[in-house]
Amino acid sequence: MEPKFILFLERLFWVAVIMLAALVVLNLVSRFIHRFFRRVRRDPHKDKTLETLLSSTLRYLIYAVAVMLALEQFVDITPIIAGAGVLGLAVGIGAQSLVKDIITGFFIIFEDQFHVGDLVEINGQVTGKVEELGLRLTTIREWSGKKFYIANSEIKTVRNYNREEMRAIVTATFPFEEDPRKIREVLDQACREVAREYYQEFIQGPDGPVEPPQIYGVTDIDKSDKGGQFTITALTKPGSLWTVEKALREKIWQACRDNGVRLAYPTRVYVGSQPGEESRASHEYLGANGSQP
Q: Are the beta carbons of 33 and 55 closer than 8 angstroms?
């Protein structure tokens, strides 16, 4: 074999060794970080966030060092390092979105907007659990199982459902013909049943739930032609908001059926033709009492 070819194979061998060493180091560092945060035992959500962030940062750093060492086997990297300033300027101009992603990711973590494991709504479009929070990307897993990779610079608004407490708000509309006093009795019955059956879902105080399900009051009698609207509220634990709201709606529905109280709803009827006139049909919405609004 020619000396040049042997030298080339030798360099390829060392490149393979460098890349393998980089993978081993990355694996060892990831395990060390994971064990470290398991022993710290602080807020599990914050620990998971910092763990994924450190792992992501070290992964980029180890890969960058491995690439530089691999290049050194073929070319002199001293001029590359010397020209890093000019190269960095060129990259900065051509990759402004990447820089924005990193800066935004830093502020998301610094301002403690959300953690890994939090249930969030991003930009009013994607709702799910945060699986990974990095300097460049945030990964969201929807309830349906769909996974979204969102660039940090694209995150404009965040609604976090895992911040200490949430207030469940459920509304129910009843026809104006129903007695408000009877409606209150029915709603109180539904609230008591939810408070008893879902006791563990509420924020607890010294004497029980801080704010169990209760009637907030009549919140609408003039904006809807269907009837008057009652609002029920409750203070829930993080992540229990939808559980309590679903339970309240079901219990209200069942209590109304059991006590003969009607819930308001729009009714569609067909108006036929009069004798001697041309046949016609029209759709009109009627109120819950059966009369035209």
A: yes
Average of per-residue pLDDT across 2-7: 68
Taking phi over 0 as left and psi of -120 to 50 as alpha, with beta for the rest, 227 belongs to left
Say how many CA atoms lie within 13 Å of 19 toward its Cβ: 10
- Could you give the CA distance from residue 77 to residue 81 in angstroms, rounded to a whole number? 6
10 Å Cβ neighbour count for 150? 16
Q: What is the CA radius of gyration of the chain?
A: 31
H/E stretch holding 235 reads strand 228-236
Other C-beta atoms within 10 Å of 207: how many? 6
For residue range 196-214, what is the model confidence (pLDDT) as tens digits?
999 999 988 888 888 999 9
CA 223 to chain centre: 32
* CA 125 – CA 104 distance, rounded (Å): 19
State the Cα–Cα distance between residues 204 and 69, nearest whole angstrom. Answer: 58
Q: Give the closest residue to 196 by CA, choosing from 234, 167, 160, 164.
A: 234
* 285 phi/psi in degrees, rounded to 5: -90, 130
3-state secondary structure of 278: coil
pLDDT in tens, 124-180: 899 998 988 877 889 999 988 899 999 988 999 998 887 777 889 999 999 999 999
Cα separation of the two ends of the chain: 97
What is the distance between the alpha carbons of residues 178 and 181, in angstroms, rounded to a whole number? 9
d(C-alpha 104, C-alpha 168), whole Å: 31
- Sequence-ordered alpha helix ranges (H) in 223-292: 241-259
pTM, rounded to two decimals: 0.56
Could you tell me if 152 and 117 are in contact, meaning their C-beta atoms sit under 8 angstroms apart?
no
